[in-house]
Amino acid sequence: MSLNLCVLPDVKPDENAITISHVRAYVIKSKEVEETGGGFADCHSQAEGHWILGTDKWPIANPMSYYEKYKARRSSWGIDAIGSVIVEIELTNGIKGIGISIGGEPACYIIEKHFSRFLEGQDPLNIEYLWDVMWRSSINYGRKGLTIQSISAIDLALWDCAGKLRNEPVYKLLGGKTKDCLPCYATCYDPLAAKNLGFKGAKFPLPYGPADGDQGMMKNIERIKQIRESVGPDFPLMIDCYMSLTVSYTLKLLELIKPFNIKWLEEHLPPDQYSGYAEVKKRNPTTILLTCGEHEYTRWGFKLLLDNNCADLLQPDVTWCGGITEARRIVALASAYDIPIIPHGSSIYSYHLQYAFPNLPMSEFLIMSSDSSSIVPYFGDLFTDEPLPKDGWIHLDANKPGFGVTINKNNLRRPYNRDEKVI
């Protein structure tokens, strides 16, 4: 029996409310600009030679490592093929909010041709309602991946608008701060450089996977041993496997890396292998933590991870998993299981979430300089004032409303420029 007594009436803005006049979706104007500009919203859109694509000396294990043609560079199979999407939401009072994700022109199409109908003319503060209608209207073709990334970019733009309307940073809208600043670990090629830059720990990519056999496993151990010796016995180290391993290979790897004081092993299996993650966690022969979630979407995906006891901590990407609106649900859900959250990347968009909730103990910062030896903005040239870590800490400015950054629109192109009518 249903509890509903009737169908709810349309949600309309309150009288004299500031509303959404325009929704615009942009990509970077060319692949060359995206690569030379630091990737923008897609950290993998980099020029040849960048460490994040894999190097001649050390490749990066990934789901395509089974095929010789695609082993050497992740760009060879198109990790960077989709590219950035940037959403600008303009309000009737002239305020503009910015949200980003991966999605490129396909995401622009979804945003401009489908989701814009739910947004223009609406109150930008009705974020829960707007998220719900976008989610429900795209279930038939969405639920994960590109569609949720499109919703994420819109959602982040709405939160940016909300902060600017209230003249407060987003973390204050989420309940205020639970910490004065954020400790950061670095994801990089060279953990020693990260240590020298003041980061509180470092994560590096696993070079080889199951297709490389016993020789590849030994090269993995060689690399891990080399890194541990370079940073000393106590500096926290983590390993990113990027969806590349199997259950049996992971268990063997865990056994072999026992001597090297590794903090966690990340995303060792493809994201839909819930039973495999549960099995590895159950049979883990070490005290090394097991993590995943970077490529999971929405509260329902994370509930599967939690219910199946798949991980010791979870790593949603705020720009992919459904935006701030869905990320805070994931945070609340994980807190009920006493599982901490350490978001993947996301820079400013995760920093505000981390400020606001106590079960997000630290932040990830990807060192996006080509050789991973110096700090540059995670989003490249996309913003003019992205906050950067200093001595391993991120500080947010309480006087900057919204997400506190300024978009650089010089390199943007709008592929689906609809006839714009102010509502």
From TrEMBL:
Superkingdom of this protein's organism: Eukaryota
Cofactors required: Mg(2+)
UniProt keyword annotations, A-Z: Magnesium, Metal-binding
InterPro entries reported for this sequence: Enolase-like_C_sf, Enolase-like_N, Enolase_C-like, Mandelate_racemase_C, Mandelate_racemase_N_dom, RHMD-like
GO biological process, one term: carbohydrate catabolic process
GO function terms (MF aspect): hydro-lyase activity; magnesium ion binding
Mandelate racemase/muconate lactonizing enzyme C-terminal domain location: 189-287
Protein name: Mandelate racemase/muconate lactonizing enzyme C-terminal domain-containing protein
